[in-house]
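Lest this sound abstract, we let one protein speak, letters for residues, whole numbers for local backbone shapes, and leave readers to judge:
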Amino acid sequence: ANGSLSLDLTGQRIDGAQGTFSAKLERASSNALIAADIEIAEAADGILVGLIGRPSGPAYRLAAKAMPDGDALRGSVTLASERSTQFNGRFALAPDNGSKRLQIIASGDVSELVPPEYAQRLAGSIDIGLDADWQAIDGSMIPEIAIRQARLNTETINASASGTLSRQVADLSLEVNVADPAGDTIALPMLPEPSELRRVSLRGTVAPSNGVVRADLVGNVAGLQLAGVSVPATGLSLAIETVSGGTPFSGKLPFAARLEADAVRTASGELVATGEQPLLVTANGTIDTETFTAEADIDVQAGGGQVEFKGTLSPNVVNGSAK
């Protein structure tokens, strides 16, 4: 009657293969947090291995626990196999002066128990760390956030972020670098083969600028191959502005974007950029965060020619004119 919960489930495979499942869930009342203790174990070539698209895989044990601690919820996750997989993580979710604070620390090796298309990016040791607050803002899809630290490090990915984005403060930074340590190409998941790249480097900031708050993203991509088109090197930039002191990045926001390549190669030939004939796409306009539409002027230059587009773009419809 008071919303309490007590659930104890167990199961096992009945097809002759070894596999067990157990889950215990407890809640004292409808307003209380749920305590959970879940464990899954399978022999080699189990159901999980098939679900992630691998033809074979090791025996493993996955355990996850969550326990209320006053107003906070604390827990752990452990994944271990009979071979090289060993991953351990801890988390805590708690209220913090009107916000919610999430802390995560995790590390280990999971490469043999991830989908094959992600194995290269998640090979070897993984290190994950997060300590951040967030608070929802009425009328905005973007919450106020304060990131003390955020990191993801693997053999091929190094990403980090820190800073604050709120009505009062705009000071946020982001860095992402993706490259295979052996210099090999990196396959792009969920795209037709061959879809790959050799290196990505991105830098992002959010900071005050001339009376507005400005978000900037700059970077480059090397060795991109997609849909039979190869681009050896590409530089990109994106800038979005929002009014300082208002709800951050909400409403109609002015933007400017630039994408420039050194060459484009296809089966039928090659276009090489020069000072007089660049391979360049620029776009300027506004983005409406409420309707997910953009009003843009787009200019494309390639091979000495030029196409200009002016119109409205949305996820389902493109309206405008080109010349």
